[in-house]
Amino acid sequence: MLRTHTCGELRPDHIGQTVTLTGWVQRTRDAGGIFWIVLRDRYGLTQLALEEGVESEELRAKGRELGREFVISVTGKVAERYSKNDKIPTGAIEIRVEQLEVLNAAKLPPFLIEDETDGGDDLRMKYRYLDLRRNPVRRNLELRHRVAQATRRFLDGQQFIEVETPVLIKSTPEGARDFVVPSRMNPGEFYALPQSPQTFKQLLMVSGFDRYFQIVKCFRDEDLRADRQPEFTQIDCEMSFVTQEDILNTFEGLVQYLFKEVKGLEIGTLPRMTYADAMRFYGNDKPDTRFEMKFVELNDVVKGQGFPVFDAAGLVVGINAHNSAMYTRKQLDELTEFVKRPQVGATGLVYARVEPDGNVKSSVDKFYSQDELQKWKAAFNANPGDLLLILAGEPNKTRKALSELRLEMGQRMGLRDKDVFSPLWVVDFPLLEYLEEEGRYFAMHHPFTSPKPEDVALLDNPDTIGEVRANAYDMVINGVEVGGGSIRIHDRAVQARMFSLLGFSDEEAKAQFGFLLDAFEYGAPPHGGIAFGFDRLCSLFGGADSIRDFIAFPKNNSGRDVMIDSPSPISGAQLKELSIATAVEKKA
Ligand code: ASP
């Protein structure tokens, strides 16, 4: 090594030793008689000192020429500092420089390489390699590393085998668009990048691997939101000869282990909630259960009193924001504006306060007597000081809007603490979901998910098909879906039937998934699995909202890597070699 120690290592015990350190110049400070350099590497900061009359003028001149981010090597004696800095572990010592060598000069970086930087998002993305030098960013990747290592340790201990599956595959139907790659050797034909290794992990079960996992890149060509990346990482798992119960227990174990190892937290047993309850009480299949504020349905309480909005509504439903009756008119107007935003989609907000004397004052007092309003209070189990917020309209839309309002109130009331973790399983998802725009059913999870045996008969009747529940489950933490999976179909006939329900002709099913249907004829064991969003899990552990901060080289919101400037055009010659022009012509 070019160094004897790292910049985070030296302590008073080392005083008197001659050491060599290497690293980047974090900053320099000139106090006239003494010149300091703060040297940085991944492990920490160490102060170097060059004092008038002690270190040579030649060395001191060399020190003065250093700029921020120069890479240097320095040899000297560890000495006690005059004024100690108890904020850093090496703050009691400094190096009295004897030799200083510039290993590489550096241009002035475009933003400060400090914990608090002056660089905007775009600039830091363009110079991501510099941003990665900063402690907070590096720490995120260190956390990611720890989560990955702990995952491997746990799953290895449970007899899971890590198997790599191919990246150049063909289309998998996970509901998003595929990224495709032209094949030079097969003109006019394309590979697809996996949206997940779903079919491969199922084939590994047919192969008898019994327990598989992989920390794996997946690719989905979706419109990007703040927490989405076109390429992302999953902890992908599959098990044979298991029931849903076995999978839930195994992966509850994994998540408990990760919380313990990475955060030092005991999260205990995960509660379970059915999809139906999640929708009914939270209006959301990924409820943030750090706080209660459950939905209260009011149809029976509020209808028939002459208020046209409630009388016409399919559903009248509300939440009780405890101790928020002091909300001002202005704040309530803000909430009304909030629910009317197109993303939330409500037409208005009705509110009611429970006054100190127990009387209820509502925004629709015109239509409701105090006796009637007392019934509201009872329905909400409300007490003086509580604020009741009520929406009305078409049931699904109204639940969705109230879910947004509930989260907003949770935020405003400080109930969504990043350091509190509330994990749960959401189970019994519907198997199918009807998409109005497409005029047909889609698999809610994916087409390989098995119906609950007790619901299979409902598949025969078009009126009950939508009620069929799946052996499918999500793990949700703090309102974020961190993982999801299902027990799979392992019977060829059932799988073929599922494809047909989803609108595939026999030929289409064969062309796309013939390999899987065939495999099911050679002794496919019952199996099931789950995949966790690894980036999301890391951002949750790190207390951040965006997964971007936990990916070394992420893409921006337009799916671009602004550092390497990709995607980018390719040459005509390259296109020709890939027969892309031919493929386009053929199609035309
Ligand atoms: N392949 C699924 C996904 O990516 C997870 C699973 O069913 O195991 O969501």
From TrEMBL:
Native source species: Hymenobacter nitidus
Transmembrane annotation, as ranges: none
Entry's family note: Belongs to the class-II aminoacyl-tRNA synthetase family. Type 1 subfamily.
Subunit structure and binding partners: Homodimer.
Cellular localisation: Cytoplasm
Annotated signal sequence range: none
Enzyme Commission number(s) from the entry: 6.1.1.12
UniProt xrefs under InterPro entries: Aa-tRNA-synt_II, aa-tRNA-synth_II, aa-tRNA-synth_II/BPL/LPL, Asp-tRNA-ligase_1, Asp-tRNA-ligase_1_N, Asp/Asn-tRNA-synth_IIb, AspRS_core, GAD-like_sf
Top-level EC class: ligase
One example GO MF annotation: aspartate-tRNA ligase activity
Residues in Aminoacyl-transfer RNA synthetases class-II family profile domain copies: 141-554
Primary subcellular site in the record, as a coarse category: cytoplasm
Taxonomy, superkingdom: Bacteria
Reaction equations catalysed: tRNA(Asp) + L-aspartate + ATP = L-aspartyl-tRNA(Asp) + AMP + diphosphate
Presence of the UniProt keyword Nucleus in the record: no
Keywords: Aminoacyl-tRNA synthetase, ATP-binding, Cytoplasm, Ligase, Nucleotide-binding, Protein biosynthesis
Ligand binding (ATP): R220, D221, E222, Q229, E481, G533, F534, D535, R536
HAMAP family documented for this protein: Asp_tRNA_synth_type1
Residues reported to bind L-aspartate: E174, R220, H445, R488
Function: Catalyzes the attachment of L-aspartate to tRNA(Asp) in a two-step reaction: L-aspartate is first activated by ATP to form Asp-AMP and then transferred to the acceptor end of tRNA(Asp).
Region ranges (Aspartate): 198-201
Matching Gene3D superfamilies: Bira Bifunctional Protein, Domain 2 (3.30.930.10), GAD-like domain (3.30.1360.30), Nucleic acid-binding proteins (2.40.50.140)
NCBIfam families: aspS_bact (TIGR00459), PRK00476.1 (NF001750)
Descriptive protein name: Aspartate--tRNA ligase
